[in-house]
Amino acid sequence: MAGVQSMWPYRDDLHVLIEAPDGTLVATAIIWFDPVSRTAEFEPVGTHRAYRRQGLATALLWHGMHRARDAGAETMLVACVGAAGRPAARELYYGVGFEPFARDVPHVKRAP
């Protein structure tokens, strides 16, 4: 993780995490913000298999989108590689307001 944290434009305030009560990391998203285009890209986004289908990724994305908006983002991007074969991920992104955009960047959302 130290390698990622030393990369530009990594921002600690745009790295959202959810921990279980025992301190285990269960969900995470890094938000890469470009102040020139005012675009925030969520990559990677992930939830541990044992904690899926509990609403954690939805909460993580909403919290991350609000943080990105507060940082100045006007547009949010998330790539769902292989979206056709990942219906749960695709529906997660649609459920928080992302829409298909392009094949390589298939979901886009205006800041809430």
From TrEMBL:
Residues 1-112 form the N-acetyltransferase domain. It comes from the Bacteria. InterPro entries: Acyl_CoA_acyltransferase, GNAT_dom. One of its GO terms (molecular function) is acyltransferase activity, transferring groups other than amino-acyl groups. Keywords: Transferase. Pfam families: Acetyltransf_1. The keyword Coiled coil does not apply. This is GNAT family N-acetyltransferase. It comes from Sulfobacillus harzensis.
